[in-house]
TrEMBL record:
<keyword id="KW-0732">Signal</keyword>
<comment type="function">
    <text>Calcium-binding protein that interacts with newly synthesized monoglucosylated glycoproteins in the endoplasmic reticulum. It may act in assisting protein assembly and/or in the retention within the ER of unassembled protein subunits. It seems to play a major role in the quality control apparatus of the ER by the retention of incorrectly folded proteins. Required for embryogenesis and larval development under heat and ER stress conditions. May be important for germ cell development. Involved in neuronal necrotic cell death.</text>
</comment>
<feature type="compositionally biased region" description="Basic and acidic residues">
    <location>
        <begin position="286"/>
        <end position="309"/>
    </location>
</feature>
<keyword id="KW-1015">Disulfide bond</keyword>
<dbReference type="GO" id="GO:0051082">
    <property type="term" value="F:unfolded protein binding"/>
</dbReference>
<feature type="signal peptide">
    <location>
        <begin position="1"/>
        <end position="29"/>
    </location>
</feature>
<feature type="compositionally biased region" description="Acidic residues">
    <location>
        <begin position="533"/>
        <end position="546"/>
    </location>
</feature>
<feature type="region of interest" description="Disordered">
    <location>
        <begin position="270"/>
        <end position="341"/>
    </location>
</feature>
<keyword id="KW-0472">Membrane</keyword>
<feature type="compositionally biased region" description="Basic and acidic residues">
    <location>
        <begin position="523"/>
        <end position="532"/>
    </location>
</feature>
<dbReference type="InterPro" id="IPR001580">
    <property type="entry name" value="Calret/calnex"/>
</dbReference>
<keyword id="KW-1133">Transmembrane helix</keyword>
<dbReference type="GO" id="GO:0006457">
    <property type="term" value="P:protein folding"/>
</dbReference>
<dbReference type="GO" id="GO:0012505">
    <property type="term" value="C:endomembrane system"/>
</dbReference>
<feature type="compositionally biased region" description="Basic residues">
    <location>
        <begin position="596"/>
        <end position="605"/>
    </location>
</feature>
<feature type="compositionally biased region" description="Basic and acidic residues">
    <location>
        <begin position="568"/>
        <end position="588"/>
    </location>
</feature>
<dbReference type="GO" id="GO:0005886">
    <property type="term" value="C:plasma membrane"/>
</dbReference>
Amino acid sequence: MAWKMGGNRAATLALLFASSLLLLSSANAADLDTESDDFEDGYVEDVQEEPAVIGGDEKLAYESPVIDAKKFHFADHFDDVEESRKRWVLSQAKKDDIAEEISKYDGIWNWESPQRIVWANDLGLVLKSKAKHAAIAAPLRKPFEFKSDKPLVVQYEVTLQEGQECGGSYLKLLSAGKDTEQLKAFNDKTPYTIMFGPDKCGNDVKMHFIFRHVNPINGTITEKHCNKPKNRLEEPFKDKLPHLYQLVVRPDNSFEIRVDHKIINEGSLLTDFKPPVNPPAEIDDPNDHKPESWDEREKIPDPTAHKPEDWDEDAPPQLPDTDAVMPNGWLEDEPDMIFDPTATKPEDWDAEIDGEWEAPLVDNPVCEKAPGCGKWKAPLIPNPNYKGKWRAPMIENPNYQGKWAPRKIPNPDFFEDLKPFQMTPISAVGLELWSMSSDILFDNLIITDDVEVARDFAANSFDIKRRYIDRESDSFVNKVVELAKANPSIWGIGLVAIVALVALTIYCRFGTAKSQDSAAKKAAAEAKKSDDPQPDDEPEAEEESDERAAGDTSKESTPLSASPKKNQKSDLDDNEEESKAAESREPAQTEESNTKTRKRQARKE
């Protein structure tokens, strides 16, 4: 029996060990697949590497990033509230073409710690209001000119502390000029050069990158919208964690958009925007019209075909079945529906207004047991002579001239701008938002012309913050969930292991119990064949003790052992054995009679 229990435990441990090996092998395979996918793309993404964490007890301390003014066109970590408040200007403008009561930019902004405080000295600019228009802007330390050979790098953090269902958290890089000199008048009509950042309303999720292109011929401005990324961006709107957004626009007209250091979209200003930067060289002639005689029909009815003489267009598609007969018991004299005999006219029924009252129709109860009621009609069957309306077969049109299109003429507005990177200079950065969620936190906003400077700034701010948050929330359950998300096959492996473990547990619980019961019964049967005292005798011994105690009340009762002693036999035991031998010669006697016999023998003693 012990060997069986040990075998079951060994099987369970073996199953758990095998499941662990399968999980580890799946994880390793997933890592290998991920690495192979990275190399199959033809390049290794240049992502900021996080410093290694030394031990689980490392204390991650935050210090406000050092801002070297020479390296930034704009930088604000919002930790120095006094200096930051001097930099930012709250809009006092109103929106045009909107109701007066909602036209004001009356959203509330504040400098404060996040709701989930990581470090008390890490502050951010928070939009406190929801369902209100809010606008705030700050001038750049020096305007960004697009004439040099250096890229534009915009980077900032957003934490949607209450999630986001409808609203934006994007920023605008305001164009240099008279319209942006007074930031108190900043509104939705203020000219901007680039708009960048996340936006969501319902299921419409966007990562905006819009730049305003100036027509070099007539000076008109057109918004160019970047194509949507391939992968849908969902997590930043749900997880309520800080996320880092970065836009890099290079002088070669290429661009990159990163979220948390991962590229989500990239391309060219010339080819990946709608409408395209450069218009077509030719356009359709607006004065050209299709001639009336132009034949665009590829096929026409055969003019030489004629309808056959035996073609009957009037033949019905179905005919009554002449072989059908009315079923027996059909009640032709009974209607299908009758007036409800239990219905009564309402008391407020007005015959002049409502007309003559009639009881509603109900199914005829007589027809419930009959095949049918009313006039019988033979069922319809397809007409073998039905051909339908005749039409001539189609043939190739000998006069087909193709699909007509207007002729092309040179585009009078054509231009070719091969350097759309050279945009309107930027003099300020602004946040002009409307959101149905409150407490949107902005942090560590920088504008620079050096990608490495932006990465170093993120390494000393965002990266430390996320590493701390991830370490605090890191647990075995989270690791299993992340592993399962990356490798869906692990769910199947885990399910098989759990089912097998449950099956083994049930077997060990009930299967061994049955084995113990059968073994106990077998041992009892073997014992009955011998003269050893049985557990059934214990109550009798207790009864003897009770009788002896009744006979001599002056003696104290002593507890009896749960198991009888095998080495010592009393005279009572000898008498019981003699009684058992006599009982074996009389098999017809019951256990109750045996018990009475033993009791009588005990009284004699």
